[in-house]
Specification:
By secondary structure, the chain is of the alpha+beta class. The chain has 6 helices and 8 strands. The longest helix has 11 residues, at 28-38. 21% of the residues are buried.
Length: 154
């Protein structure tokens, strides 16, 4: 992790900057726990024998599991600067989310974060929009591409 600290105004000058996380394995245990948390136990996620008979060739992560890896992957960006004076950050929503390629159990993924916009909504409240891409190790197409909005309170 980077020990660099920047101001929110300095972050605003980094529009277009892209940062990449370390790789994270999407294990069957992770998929099973997500199924339990969400109640989505469709066989393509939790039954390796039945899922092996599908075009996926085995179990796959839920699309929403892949999307929910955003905070984990963000925490694994080595050169992510710390923003001075942050009180909290919250998810605001997405302009778009597209699930492109399923993540097969046991595959490794990483996040690619590109800062698209950072604007001050009111004093001490900033809204950032990032393009968030989840890449799958060894795959040509990403798992998902999202345009995600969050708010930072300083």
């Amino acid at each position: 992790m980077s020990n660099d600290t920047i101001s929110i105004n300095e972050l605003a000058t980094q529009i277009g900057t892209e940062r990449i996380s370390d790789w994270v394995e999407v294990s069957q245990e992770m998929i099973d726990k997500f199924a339990d948390a969400t109640g989505d136990h469709q066989f393509i996620h939790v039954n390796p024998q039945m899922a092996a008979m599908t075009p996926f060739g085995g179990t796959i992560a839920h699309g929403f599991l892949t999307l929910s890896l955003m905070p984990l992957l963000s925490s694994k960006v080595a050169d992510q600067p710390k923003i001075e004076g942050v009180k909290m950050g919250v998810n605001y929503g997405g302009n778009k989310v597209r699930f492109i390629t399923p993540v097969r159990s046991g595959k490794r993924v990483r996040g690619r974060f590109k800062l698209m916009e950072l604007i001050e909504k009111r004093p001490g409240q900033w809204q950032q929009t990032n393009e968030f891409t989840v890449e799958i190790e060894g795959e040509d197409k990403p798992a998902l591409i999202a345009e995600w909005i969050s708010q930072i309170f300083v």
